[in-house]
Each structure stands twice: as structure tokens, then as C-alpha cells.
């Protein structure tokens, strides 16, 4: 076992008493004393959220001129990249709750940006795609999205950007242990 890393014992004690081992018990995390000070400004979840919120809020202001919000933009971008997705797959790709995403998609269908059609893989399933109007809108927004990404990444080298992206994907994947339903 690595120095400074603890594994949970066979039984873990929680506020509700002992419980059996679970997948999250096998996660190795740096040992942190229970009395450690907590510095919000240095906490990774805070830093990731703070950066994401700043980028999202600034980009959202620009999206208004296209009559889009950030969630709708994610739908457009996801369907542009991978057309003919089921709602459940689109929910995973856009990190939206399926019920929320369903309402967003319904509104985009009314605005003629998205269309439903039979899935090519399963005739019983419904897939979503951008309409020609949705494709046109997405193609007009992509340069703006690329500008915001360039600004956010200014001062970072290509290897640093690649490393940042890999680390963010790893953070996301690591959280599956604590949130197995998603």
C-alpha cells in the first residue's frame, strides 16, 4: 500500500452504525486527519465549480443574443457532435437530469431546433437530431464557444491543456464511486 494512503477496514462505521464494505470502500484516498483545517478557497470541488461557473455565466450572456441558454447550447453541441441520440444518452452527455432535459428538448422542438425520429438502431426507440435550423444555429455559435475556450485556456501550453482535460475526466470518473446511480 502507498505511503499516506488508507484503505477502509472490512466494516466501516457510519452515523447509522457499522455497514458492509462497498465499492466506495476500495477507493484509495490520501490520508487526511479528521481534525484537518478546511480551506474552501483551496478545495478542488470549489475551484472546479468556480471556474466552470465563471465560464458558464460569461458564455451564457453571449448565448442570449442567439436566443439560447447554456443547457440548450449543450443539447445543440451534443447533437451536432453525435446526431440521433436517445434522450437517456443525451442526458449523460450533457450532464442534465432526464426530466429537465426532456422539458428543454420539448421547447427546442417547438422552436424547430430539434426533431424526434425513429432510432436507426431500434425502431421502437425515439432519437433526437438537430433540424437544419438547429444545425445552422449551432454552426454560428461554435466559433463563440471556441473563443471562450481559448480565453479560458490562455497561458496554458498544449501539454498542460491535455493534462487538464485528462484530470477533469479522471475527477468525473472517480466520483462514480460515491454516486453509483449516475
UniProtKB/TrEMBL annotation:
<dbReference type="GO" id="GO:0003700">
    <property type="term" value="F:DNA-binding transcription factor activity"/>
</dbReference>
<dbReference type="InterPro" id="IPR000835">
    <property type="entry name" value="HTH_MarR-typ"/>
</dbReference>
<protein>
    <submittedName>
        <fullName>MarR family transcriptional regulator</fullName>
    </submittedName>
</protein>
<dbReference type="Pfam" id="PF01047">
    <property type="entry name" value="MarR"/>
</dbReference>
<dbReference type="InterPro" id="IPR039422">
    <property type="entry name" value="MarR/SlyA-like"/>
</dbReference>
<keyword id="KW-0805">Transcription regulation</keyword>
<feature type="domain" description="HTH marR-type">
    <location>
        <begin position="41"/>
        <end position="173"/>
    </location>
</feature>
<dbReference type="InterPro" id="IPR036390">
    <property type="entry name" value="WH_DNA-bd_sf"/>
</dbReference>
<dbReference type="GO" id="GO:0003677">
    <property type="term" value="F:DNA binding"/>
</dbReference>
<feature type="region of interest" description="Disordered">
    <location>
        <begin position="1"/>
        <end position="30"/>
    </location>
</feature>
<dbReference type="InterPro" id="IPR036388">
    <property type="entry name" value="WH-like_DNA-bd_sf"/>
</dbReference>
<keyword id="KW-0238">DNA-binding</keyword>
<dbReference type="GO" id="GO:0006950">
    <property type="term" value="P:response to stress"/>
</dbReference>
<keyword id="KW-0804">Transcription</keyword>
Amino acid at each position: 500500500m502507498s505511503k499516506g494512503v488508507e484503505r477502509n477496514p472490512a466494516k466501516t462505521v457510519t452515523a447509522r452504525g457499522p455497514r458492509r464494505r462497498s465499492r466506495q470502500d476500495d477507493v484509495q484516498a490520501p490520508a487526511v486527519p479528521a481534525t484537518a483545517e478546511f480551506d474552501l478557497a483551496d478545495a478542488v470541488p470549489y475551484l472546479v465549480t468556480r471556474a466552470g461557473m465563471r465560464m458558464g455565466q460569461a458564455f451564457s450572456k453571449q448565448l442570449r443574443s442567439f436566443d439560447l441558454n447554456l443547457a440548450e447550447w449543450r443539447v445543440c453541441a451534443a447533437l451536432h457532435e453525435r446526431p440521433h441520440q436517445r434522450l437517456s444518452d443525451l442526458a449523460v452527455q450533457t450532464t442534465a437530469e432526464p426530466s429537465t432535459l426532456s422539458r428543454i428538448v420539448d421547447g427546442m422542438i417547438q422552436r424547430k431546433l430539434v426533431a424526434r425520429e425513429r432510432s436507426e438502431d431500434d425502431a421502437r426507440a425515439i432519437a433526437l437530431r438537430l433540424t437544419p435550423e438547429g444545425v445552422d444555429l449551432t454552426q454560428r455559435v461554435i466559433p463563440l464557444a471556441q473563443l471562450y475556450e481559448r480565453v479560458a485556456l490562455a497561458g496554458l501550453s498544449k501539454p498542460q491543456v491535455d493534462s487538464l482535460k485528462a484530470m477533469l475526466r479522471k475527477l468525473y470518473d472517480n466520483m462514480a464511486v460515491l454516486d453509483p446511480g449516475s
